[in-house]
Structures are given as C-alpha cells and as structure tokens.
Amino acid sequence: MALEISYHEGEDGMLYPDIKAAEQTETGTLGKFGIMAREYLEENYPQRYQSLVRFGNLYTKLKEVEEEANRMLDSLMEKYLESHRPENPQSTMEMFHIRKQGMMEAEEIIRHDLINQFH
Questions:
Q1: What pTM value is reported for the model?
Q2: How far is the C-alpha of 81 from the C-alpha of 93, rounded, in Å?
C-alpha cells in the first residue's frame, strides 16, 4: 500500500501538503457509561478530549471505560442484592424497588470512582 500525498500551491508559490484528520476506523455504539465518560471528558478536560479525537483513540478509550463500568455494575449489584434480601421474595414490586435502589447506588459509585477519575 503506497502512501499518497497531495499538495496545493499557496499564495507564496510554495507547495503545502493537504493534511486531513485521521478518520475513526472503529465505530459502534456506546452504552450509558461510555456516553457519561465522553460528556465528562468533553466538559472537564476539553484538551484531552480533543487529543483523543484527533488521534482517533476516543472510541477505544470510551469502550474500555464502558466495559470496566459494566463489570463494576455487575459486581456492585451482586453485593447489594446479597445484603438486601426482600421480606417477601414473591413480591415483584419489592424486588423492583430493591433492584432500583441498588442500581442507583451502583451508578453513583461508578460515576465517582471510574467515570470522574477517567481523563
């Protein structure tokens, strides 16, 4: 594969290379935690965000955060459900509330310990 470089002539008669930003080769959809990490990075560390975009590494890094966050979520939910047993295991609503509370606590821990530390 040969590298093709094109040039354009400037007003001063010099030839300048046509430079294009590298295209993101990996595309896909990010989940909730990947999107949260992207938003946090973009708002709080814009230089780091732009650097990752410029070098085509943003998706890869966000995918890593997404995978780690999902592992943390599974682990935290398992621990939460072990320590918060329902009084009536047949009650769908009680189980729903326990799971919802566990999910909210796990997401807060993930946001604080992983997403807000990523940069």
A1: 0.71
A2: 15
